[in-house]
């Protein structure tokens, strides 16, 4: 079965063709980073308009790269939510229409299920069951995965997502959008231990997270320290390092608890923040200590992309699921 996947939930236009026998045939992502940079964040209206401009040519390009014509496509998968509703409607509208025109089934995929299953596109793929840490700009969730489609939420952020905390703290440090990667880069120059940020909600049992306090802590530290340190560049790097260490250690503590509670030795990391190098190193070390293993997708499949949607859609279509001609986009949609 060969599936066209379309992702337009936020500021990346992603398209891919996945084949059940041959694997990922082609995928491309167009990032709107430059479009939104001047505004310091994603402007929903501009995002929708750009998806409209890019999507059709991108589909043609990816299908050509995959050596695929419409006649070879057995189904169309698109991100149906959660995300920006106008952006979602672009992918949903075009995806559903193409499927209708081609006479094949369509399926609306949950964006986070896409992220969650992305590591299965890699070799070696993690076997079920596993625990997944989903860390993106909109979500921080620990999920027990018994099989594709069988998910149990173990814990999640009660306020800001980890990626959101990275982005907001990056803004406080005057870093350009998108803030997460920029903050991680600045943190490389930081002196570890110069500042110590709290590890929120690690002093009590449970698997929930809270990251909104860290940006307030960062704001206060910036105000106090930048006023009386002469080496302000180094001070900014030290603060970035302290923030990153706090987020990473908090995530690792909860991941350890989650794999212990679930009794599994496989941990999957997915979502934009799983591109963070220090997080990967610390998670690897923690899982190695437990004689287990951590899995994550290649960097291009950590952030938003069409490959994960094509793959997740393929799993569902191959299991016989599809949807009626009427389609919806769901800005909010629990996993
Ligand atoms: O999954 P994603 O591309 O989009 C959402 O679904 O949200 O994740 C984007 C998030 C942003 O908050 C971005 O700052 C963060 O992932 N991110 C990072 C890194 N790369 C991306 N955060 C920390 N370190 C990174 N290297
Ligand atoms: Zn995402």
Characterize the structure shown.
This protein is of the alpha/beta class. The chain has two domains: 2-116 and 301-318, 2-Layer Sandwich (Nucleotidyltransferase, domain 5); 127-296, ATPase, nucleotide binding domain (Nucleotidyltransferase, domain 5). It is 45% helix and 19% strand. It is built from eleven helices and ten strands. It has helices at residues 33-37, 44-65, 85-102, 111-117, 162-172, 179-187, 212-228, 232-262, 277-289, 299-302, 306-318; strands at 2-7, 12-19, 23-31, 75-81, 106-110, 130-135, 140-147, 150-156, 266-270, 293-295. The strands form two sheets. The protein has a five-stranded mixed beta sheet, with helices on both faces. A hairpin with a 2-residue loop joins strand 7 and strand 8. The two termini are 25 Å apart. Bound molecules: 5'-O-[(R)-(carboxyoxy)(hydroxy)phosphoryl]adenosine and zinc ion.
Biggest sheet strand order reads 3-2-1-4-5
Low-confidence stretches: none
Helix content: 40-55%
Supply the CATH architecture of the largest domain.
2-Layer Sandwich
* Global shape: globular
At CATH level 3, the topology of the largest domain is: Nucleotidyltransferase, domain 5
* CATH class category of the largest domain: Alpha Beta
Report the structural category.
alpha/beta
Q: Domain count, please report it.
A: 2
CATH H-level superfamily title of the largest domain: ATPase, nucleotide binding domain
Lay out the secondary structure.
Layout: E1 2-7, E2 12-19, E3 23-31, H1 33-37, H2 44-65, E4 75-81, H3 85-102, E5 106-110, H4 111-117, E6 130-135, E7 140-147, E8 150-156, H5 162-172, H6 179-187, H7 212-228, H8 232-262, E9 266-270, H9 277-289, E10 293-295, H10 299-302, H11 306-318
Parallel strand pairs: 1-4, 4-5, 6-9, 9-10
Antiparallel strand pairs: 1-2, 2-3, 6-7, 7-8
Helix pairs in contact: 2-3, 4-11, 5-6, 5-7, 5-8, 6-8, 7-8, 8-9
Bound molecules: 5'-O-[(R)-(carboxyoxy)(hydroxy)phosphoryl]adenosine (KG4) and zinc ion (ZN).
Protein name: tRNA N6-adenosine threonylcarbamoyltransferase
Keywords: Acyltransferase, Cytoplasm, Iron, Metal-binding, Transferase, tRNA processing
Domain Gcp-like: 24-311
